[in-house]
Amino acid sequence: MSLNNITPPDVRSIVTPVLSSLPGASVSTEPSSNVLPLLAPILRQRVQVLSAASQEPWIRLLTYDTAKVPRLTSIAQSGVLDPHPVSGEIEMDWDYNVEIKYKRVDEETLQTLVVLGEMDLFVRLVYCTGDGENGGQGWRVGEVGVASDPSPLASYGGFSTLDEAQKAFGASKQAAGRHLNVGVTRAPAAAVEEEDDDDDDYWARYDATPARTPANNRSPAPQPMTKASQPEIERSQSAEDAYFSQYDSVQPAMDPHDPDEEMEHVNVPPPLGMGRVGGSADSMDQSQNETSGVWTLAVPPKSPSSRSIRSQEDEERTQNLVHPRPESSASSNGSVMVAKLEESAERKEQSEFGVKQHISRSIRSLYLLTRASGIDREEFERMVRTELDVLGMVEDEI
After folding, report:
1. Separation of alpha carbons 45 and 274, rounded Å
2. What are the backbone angles phi and psi of residue 42, rounded to the nearest 5°?
3. How many domains does the chain fold into?
4. The CA-based dihedral angle spanning residues 251, 253, 256, 258, taken in that order and rounded to the nearest 10 degrees
5. Domain that holds residue 353
6. Is the domain of 78 the same as that of 197?
7. From 5's CA, which of 55, 300, 378, 396 has a CA 20 to 30 Å away?
8. Cis preceding linkage at 301, omega within 30
């Protein structure tokens, strides 16, 4: 439904029942069933849901400024809202002590601010078109708050009549459209260049990222003391196989057995002309005696045949100690999983950064639009906070 042909609200018939309920709301935890239909759907849901989950008086839920709750409670309990003993109504001069301002916020929001200066209260009315519980459309109470320190009229603005508010909104809408068109067709070169620079800086972050992760650093494990000479074999491997192959020749730091150290111990020759103590000359020509560590005069070899037998035994022992380590199939599978996880994390980080950039620019664009429409910053911030509060209440239904 269009908001262009709306009649002004009957302020007295809407506001009076709400004011009469404030003294009871300052001490009761259950909202009055007679007042709930007069509230806007958003405020009505706020009062119903939050009052059921708390043991505090529900008057605090009528205002969005939590700092003013003590003052609002004090006014409700001061007696100024007590009905007259004869007429049964609140004593109020609706013609002289009440200020009314009208404001068209956007295409879907039409408000009326009623300031009761004598009582230090204000009531904000909102025209609702989707109130299915109470006739579908009409003026409803959107907030009840304290009117002083500071006065809501100072930041609210508004107009004395509803027609003036409608005309002002139409004029600001046309001006905003012309401003946006001019901004699109004749954008300053400096602004365009600055936006391009921001985009370049954003993508430059990824250009500076190393293409390989993690870096190819030397392992902290002890390096082998000696290496068996093997022919160099050139192999064509993928980047992942090349990464894990660098650990094939590394001795684990927690492994107490090192074949290279054992080979060094086996192959250390005795001093010239010396040998180990160990019974007969035959036993000295075999593997060095493990029960004695004393050097003595070496016994000359008996014959070339004994030397050949000893050389053959040493060669077999060496082959048994130094053996190639097979590649693990788990390394290749693990490398593929690591690469996939890193790629997924990088995509998630890029997506989150892009979403944050989009939200930031959207908020700035909305703020520029509100300024062009004549809405000040305080009103813009209040609208954003209101929407966030509503989102918190209906988050499970989205």
Report:
1. 101
2. -65, -50
3. 2
4. 20
5. 187-207+332-398
6. no
7. 378
8. no
DSSP tag of 39: B
What is the number of other CB atoms lying within 10 angstroms of the CB of residue 56? Answer: 11
- Tallying the residues shown for the chain, one arrives at 398
147 near 116, Cβ under 8 Å?
Answer: yes
Residue 82's pLDDT is 87
Per the DSSP assignment, residues forming a β-bridge with 98 are 116
Mean pLDDT per block of 10 residues along the chain (398 residues) reads 80 92 93 91 93 92 93 92 82 86 88 91 91 79 89 82 87 73 53 63 66 52 48 54 69 58 53 49 42 48 53 62 50 73 84 85 86 86 88 77
Give the integer Cα–Cα distance in Å for 220 and 27. 71
CA–CA distance, 116 with 35 (Å, rounded to integer): 19
Of 358, 344, 352, nearest in space to 199 by CA: 358
The predicted structure's pLDDT at residue 366: 87
Radius of gyration, CA atoms only, the chain: 43
Tell me, yes or no, whether 81 and 195 share the same domain. no
The two three-digit tokens of residue 226, written as one number: 């000696």
Please check whether residues 50 and 96 belong to one and the same domain.
yes
The pLDDT of residue 231: 46
Query: What is the identity of the amino acid at 148?
Result: S
Domain contains 298: no
Other beta carbons within 10 angstroms of residue 47's beta carbon come to 21
- The DSSP annotation for 235-274 comes to ----HHHHHHHTTTTPPPTT----HHHHHHHHHPPPSTTE
pLDDT of residue 16: 92
